[in-house]
UniProtKB/TrEMBL annotation:
It comes from Citrus sinensis. Belongs to the ABC transporter superfamily. ABCB family. Multidrug resistance exporter (TC 3.A.1.201) subfamily. Keywords: Glycoprotein, Membrane, Repeat, Transmembrane, Transmembrane helix, Transport. This is ABC transmembrane type-1 domain-containing protein. The keyword Membrane applies. Residues 1-242 form the ABC transmembrane type-1 domain. PROSITE patterns: ABC_TM1F. CDD domains: ABC_6TM_Pgp_ABCB1_D1_like. It comes from the Eukaryota. One of its GO terms (cellular component) is membrane. GO terms for molecular function: ABC-type transporter activity; ATP binding.
Length: 323
């Protein structure tokens, strides 16, 4: 009978892992496509205000979706399994000796509250660490894309110094994250304190309330097993919080509707057009630098089929006209 149960458990575990892994891959693939479509939908002002470099977008498309995929494929099912073990253990404990379980339940509530606080702190730290890493990635991406210029002006040392300075913020956040993880590991020690208290109270039940020693031991074991399962489940909060932070950023981009929406089909549809390009009294400034006026009453007309050369000094707005 035990052999049959083991075979059934093996098949169920295989199907569980396969289904969750498959779901994680499909969700991540779909998320990448939707996120990239949302990025391409944004207007130029979004990239000027909210995106520091292309490295940030590449990191979101690849790294952030991989974090979410890992959580959906492994961490989330592990968390759900441990939560199910926790509730199942306490249900069995209530059926065996409810007096002992009721006394031990407040300690478990304490574990849950501390675990929720731990997960919230980790999510905030994960979001800040992601921003710090994006700053460092921007420096690296800039240096590699202009590596010849860096070599020509002997800027290797300066680039390394900037990169090291950018990493200092993530180091400080990593230390805080390490303290939180140590605190979470210490929380698991409460399980042994609960076991000691249950042994003491169980002996009182045997001596003064007629409880059986086997029932006390079985109920105490279910409480401890449930507490350990809960502790193992709470250890996944770090990864779930990181995935939540990454998903929050991706969700904000997906839900953002740009001021100039390429998917908005409202307005007048031109049946016939000549191909002329005309700027008429244009006033323009970049969203990130509104105090710097690029164009003021700018006028230009380019007839269809003609080639026009824009001549001017550096910063006069030639590239802005083309953009």
């Amino acid at each position: 009978m035990i052999l049959y149960l083991a075979c059934i458990a093996w098949i169920a575990a295989f199907l569980e892992a396969y289904c969750w892994t498959r779901t994680g891959e499909r969700q991540a693939t779909r998320m990448r496509a939707i996120y990239l479509k949302a990025i391409l939908r944004q207007d130029v002002g979004y990239f000027d205000l909210h995106v520091t470099s292309t490295a940030e977008i590449i990191s979101s498309v690849s790294n952030d979706t991989l974090v979410i995929q890992d959580v959906l494929s492994e961490k989330l099912p592990n968390f759900l399994v441990n939560v199910a073990i926790f509730f199942g253990s306490y249900i069995v404990g209530f059926m065996i000796l409810w007096q002992l379980v009721v006394v031990g339940f407040p300690f478990v509530v304490l574990l849950v509250v501390l675990g929720l606080i731990y997960g919230r702190i980790l999510m905030v730290l994960a979001r800040k660490m992601r921003e710090e890493y994006n700053k460092a990635n921007t420096i690296v991406e800039r240096a590699i894309s202009s590596v010849r210029t860096v070599y020509a002006f002997v800027g290797e040392g300066k680039t390394l110094d900037e990169f090291s300075s950018a990493l200092q913020g993530s180091v400080k956040l990593g230390l805080k994250q390490g303290l939180c993880k140590g605190f979470a590991s210490g929380i698991n020690a409460i399980t042994y304190a609960i076991w000691s208290f249950l042994a003491y109270y169980g002996s009182r039940l045997v001596m003064y309330h007629g409880a059986k020693g086997g029932a006390v031991f079985a109920a105490g074991t279910t409480i401890v097993v449930g507490g350990q399962a809960l502790g193992a489940g709470l250890s996944n909060f770090k990864y779930i919080s990181e995935a939540a932070s990454a998903g929050e950023h991706i969700r904000d981009v997906i839900k953002r509707v740009p001021d100039i929406d390429s998917e908005n089909m409202e307005g007048e549809t031109l049946e016939k057009f000549l191909g002329e390009v005309e700027f008429r009294n244009v006033v323009f400034a970049y969203p990130s630098r509104p105090e710097t006026i690029i164009f003021k009453d700018f006028c230009l007309k380019v007839p269809a089929g003609n080639t026009v050369a824009l001549v001017g000094g550096s910063g006069s707005g030639k590239s802005t006209v083309v953009s």
